[in-house]
Amino acid sequence: MYGRALASTALAYAVVHHLGLLPSGLGSTVDGTRVADWLDLAIPWLVLIPAALTLQAAQVGRRVWWIFGAGALAYANGHGMHLAANSVGNIDPGPTAHLWDEVVGHYIWYAGVAGLLAALAMSMVGRPRPPVIGYLLTVAVGLTWASNAVGGGTEWFSLAASLVAVWWGWTQRRQLGVVLLVGFAPAAVMLVGTLAGIG
Protein backbone atom coordinates (compact mmCIF):
# COMPACT_ATOMS: atom_id res chain seq x y z
CA MET A 1 0.00 0.00 0.00
CA TYR A 2 2.78 2.46 0.91
CA GLY A 3 4.67 2.06 -2.37
CA ARG A 4 1.54 2.41 -4.50
CA ALA A 5 0.41 5.50 -2.59
CA LEU A 6 3.85 7.11 -2.88
CA ALA A 7 4.01 6.33 -6.61
CA SER A 8 0.49 7.76 -7.05
CA THR A 9 1.55 10.94 -5.27
CA ALA A 10 4.60 11.33 -7.52
CA LEU A 11 2.61 10.62 -10.67
CA ALA A 12 -0.16 13.03 -9.68
CA TYR A 13 2.30 15.82 -8.92
CA ALA A 14 4.26 15.32 -12.13
CA VAL A 15 1.15 15.21 -14.33
CA VAL A 16 -1.23 17.78 -12.87
CA HIS A 17 1.41 20.47 -12.46
CA HIS A 18 1.69 20.67 -16.22
CA LEU A 19 -1.88 21.85 -16.91
CA GLY A 20 -0.34 25.09 -18.16
CA LEU A 21 0.83 23.19 -21.22
CA LEU A 22 -2.75 22.67 -22.41
CA PRO A 23 -3.25 24.64 -25.64
CA SER A 24 -5.05 27.93 -24.95
CA GLY A 25 -6.19 26.54 -21.60
CA LEU A 26 -8.62 24.32 -23.56
CA GLY A 27 -10.69 27.37 -24.44
CA SER A 28 -12.94 29.77 -22.55
CA THR A 29 -15.91 29.11 -20.29
CA VAL A 30 -17.95 31.21 -17.86
CA ASP A 31 -17.07 34.92 -17.75
CA GLY A 32 -13.98 34.43 -19.90
CA THR A 33 -12.30 31.94 -17.58
CA ARG A 34 -10.47 29.03 -19.16
CA VAL A 35 -11.33 25.34 -18.87
CA ALA A 36 -7.83 24.84 -17.45
CA ASP A 37 -8.68 27.27 -14.61
CA TRP A 38 -11.55 25.03 -13.58
CA LEU A 39 -9.41 21.91 -13.85
CA ASP A 40 -6.78 23.69 -11.77
CA LEU A 41 -9.19 23.68 -8.82
CA ALA A 42 -8.69 19.93 -8.44
CA ILE A 43 -4.88 20.00 -8.32
CA PRO A 44 -4.40 20.25 -4.53
CA TRP A 45 -6.89 17.43 -4.00
CA LEU A 46 -5.22 15.22 -6.59
CA VAL A 47 -1.83 15.63 -4.91
CA LEU A 48 -2.78 15.85 -1.23
CA ILE A 49 -5.05 12.80 -1.07
CA PRO A 50 -2.44 10.27 -2.26
CA ALA A 51 0.21 12.04 -0.14
CA ALA A 52 -1.97 11.65 2.97
CA LEU A 53 -2.62 8.01 2.08
CA THR A 54 1.14 7.51 1.80
CA LEU A 55 1.70 8.86 5.30
CA GLN A 56 -1.20 6.83 6.66
CA ALA A 57 0.26 3.65 5.13
CA ALA A 58 3.66 4.53 6.63
CA GLN A 59 2.04 5.00 10.06
CA VAL A 60 4.07 8.16 10.65
CA GLY A 61 4.12 9.97 13.96
CA ARG A 62 2.45 13.17 15.02
CA ARG A 63 5.41 15.40 14.08
CA VAL A 64 5.30 14.23 10.46
CA TRP A 65 1.54 14.83 10.34
CA TRP A 66 2.08 18.39 11.63
CA ILE A 67 4.69 19.03 8.94
CA PHE A 68 2.34 17.57 6.34
CA GLY A 69 -0.56 19.68 7.64
CA ALA A 70 1.43 22.90 7.50
CA GLY A 71 2.71 22.03 4.03
CA ALA A 72 -0.78 21.10 2.83
CA LEU A 73 -2.25 24.39 4.07
CA ALA A 74 0.50 26.44 2.43
CA TYR A 75 0.29 24.41 -0.78
CA ALA A 76 -3.48 24.76 -1.10
CA ASN A 77 -3.46 28.42 -0.03
CA GLY A 78 -0.64 29.41 -2.38
CA HIS A 79 -2.09 27.43 -5.24
CA GLY A 80 -5.47 29.07 -4.66
CA MET A 81 -3.90 32.54 -4.71
CA HIS A 82 -2.08 31.67 -7.91
CA LEU A 83 -5.21 30.29 -9.54
CA ALA A 84 -7.43 33.24 -8.60
CA ALA A 85 -4.89 35.89 -9.57
CA ASN A 86 -3.92 34.04 -12.75
CA SER A 87 -7.55 33.72 -13.77
CA VAL A 88 -8.12 37.44 -13.17
CA GLY A 89 -4.83 38.28 -14.90
CA ASN A 90 -5.89 36.39 -18.01
CA ILE A 91 -8.82 38.81 -18.39
CA ASP A 92 -7.46 42.01 -16.84
CA PRO A 93 -3.67 41.84 -16.45
CA GLY A 94 -2.08 44.26 -14.03
CA PRO A 95 0.50 44.61 -11.26
CA THR A 96 -1.85 43.44 -8.49
CA ALA A 97 -2.77 40.22 -10.29
CA HIS A 98 0.92 39.69 -11.05
CA LEU A 99 1.90 40.18 -7.39
CA TRP A 100 -0.63 37.66 -6.06
CA ASP A 101 -0.05 35.15 -8.85
CA GLU A 102 3.63 35.21 -9.73
CA VAL A 103 5.12 36.34 -6.44
CA VAL A 104 3.09 35.73 -3.28
CA GLY A 105 1.04 32.80 -4.56
CA HIS A 106 3.98 30.93 -6.05
CA TYR A 107 6.27 31.32 -3.04
CA ILE A 108 3.58 30.14 -0.59
CA TRP A 109 2.61 27.30 -2.95
CA TYR A 110 6.19 26.09 -3.41
CA ALA A 111 6.96 26.40 0.30
CA GLY A 112 3.97 24.14 0.86
CA VAL A 113 5.26 21.61 -1.66
CA ALA A 114 8.63 21.67 0.12
CA GLY A 115 6.81 20.89 3.39
CA LEU A 116 4.96 18.00 1.76
CA LEU A 117 8.25 16.71 0.37
CA ALA A 118 9.81 16.89 3.85
CA ALA A 119 6.94 14.89 5.37
CA LEU A 120 7.13 12.28 2.62
CA ALA A 121 10.93 12.10 2.96
CA MET A 122 10.55 11.38 6.67
CA SER A 123 8.20 8.50 5.83
CA MET A 124 10.91 6.92 3.66
CA VAL A 125 13.42 6.36 6.46
CA GLY A 126 14.28 2.68 6.91
CA ARG A 127 12.55 1.55 3.73
CA PRO A 128 14.39 -0.30 0.94
CA ARG A 129 15.38 1.25 -2.35
CA PRO A 130 12.62 1.32 -4.96
CA PRO A 131 12.30 -0.57 -8.23
CA VAL A 132 13.28 1.25 -11.44
CA ILE A 133 9.86 2.89 -11.77
CA GLY A 134 10.48 4.69 -8.48
CA TYR A 135 13.57 6.35 -9.90
CA LEU A 136 11.73 7.37 -13.07
CA LEU A 137 8.88 8.87 -11.06
CA THR A 138 11.24 10.83 -8.85
CA VAL A 139 13.07 12.29 -11.87
CA ALA A 140 9.65 13.36 -13.20
CA VAL A 141 8.88 14.99 -9.83
CA GLY A 142 12.24 16.77 -9.71
CA LEU A 143 11.96 18.09 -13.25
CA THR A 144 8.38 19.18 -12.61
CA TRP A 145 9.58 21.03 -9.50
CA ALA A 146 12.30 22.76 -11.55
CA SER A 147 10.13 23.60 -14.56
CA ASN A 148 7.42 25.01 -12.30
CA ALA A 149 10.06 27.07 -10.49
CA VAL A 150 11.30 28.54 -13.77
CA GLY A 151 7.73 29.28 -14.87
CA GLY A 152 6.85 30.67 -11.46
CA GLY A 153 9.92 32.81 -10.87
CA THR A 154 11.04 30.97 -7.72
CA GLU A 155 14.36 29.67 -9.04
CA TRP A 156 16.54 30.64 -6.06
CA PHE A 157 14.12 29.30 -3.45
CA SER A 158 13.53 26.15 -5.48
CA LEU A 159 17.27 25.62 -5.97
CA ALA A 160 17.81 25.85 -2.20
CA ALA A 161 15.01 23.32 -1.59
CA SER A 162 16.44 21.06 -4.32
CA LEU A 163 19.87 21.12 -2.69
CA VAL A 164 18.35 20.18 0.68
CA ALA A 165 16.53 17.28 -1.03
CA VAL A 166 19.79 16.19 -2.71
CA TRP A 167 21.59 16.32 0.64
CA TRP A 168 18.83 14.30 2.33
CA GLY A 169 18.88 11.78 -0.51
CA TRP A 170 22.65 11.42 -0.12
CA THR A 171 22.28 10.69 3.60
CA GLN A 172 19.63 8.08 2.73
CA ARG A 173 21.42 6.63 -0.32
CA ARG A 174 21.14 3.03 0.90
CA GLN A 175 17.41 3.39 1.50
CA LEU A 176 14.30 4.63 -0.29
CA GLY A 177 15.28 8.23 0.40
CA VAL A 178 17.90 7.94 -2.35
CA VAL A 179 15.09 8.87 -4.72
CA LEU A 180 15.45 12.48 -3.56
CA LEU A 181 19.07 12.47 -4.67
CA VAL A 182 18.15 10.93 -8.03
CA GLY A 183 15.18 13.24 -8.65
CA PHE A 184 16.42 16.55 -7.34
CA ALA A 185 20.02 16.49 -8.61
CA PRO A 186 18.76 17.00 -12.20
CA ALA A 187 16.36 19.65 -10.87
CA ALA A 188 19.25 21.49 -9.22
CA VAL A 189 21.31 21.29 -12.43
CA MET A 190 18.37 22.64 -14.45
CA LEU A 191 17.86 25.51 -12.00
CA VAL A 192 21.57 26.39 -11.91
CA GLY A 193 21.58 26.39 -15.70
CA THR A 194 18.55 28.65 -15.80
CA LEU A 195 20.02 31.06 -13.26
CA ALA A 196 23.29 31.11 -15.22
CA GLY A 197 21.39 31.91 -18.41
CA ILE A 198 22.18 28.60 -20.06
CA GLY A 199 19.44 27.09 -22.20
Detail the topology: elements first, then pairings:
Elements: H1 2-16, H2 35-40, H3 43-58, H4 62-91, H5 95-123, H6 132-152, H7 155-171, H8 178-195
Helix pairs in contact: 1-3, 1-6, 3-4, 3-5, 4-5, 5-7, 6-7, 6-8, 7-8
Describe this structure in words.
The protein has helices spanning 2-16, 35-40, 43-58, 62-91, 95-123, 132-152, 155-171, 178-195. The model has no long low-confidence stretch (mean pLDDT 91). Helix content is 76%, strand content 0%. The chain is mainly α. It folds into 2 domains: 1-123; 130-199, no CATH class. Helix 1 (2-16) runs antiparallel to helix 3 (43-58). Keywords: Membrane, Transmembrane, Transmembrane helix. The chain crosses the membrane at residues 64-84, 104-125, 132-150, 156-171, 178-198.
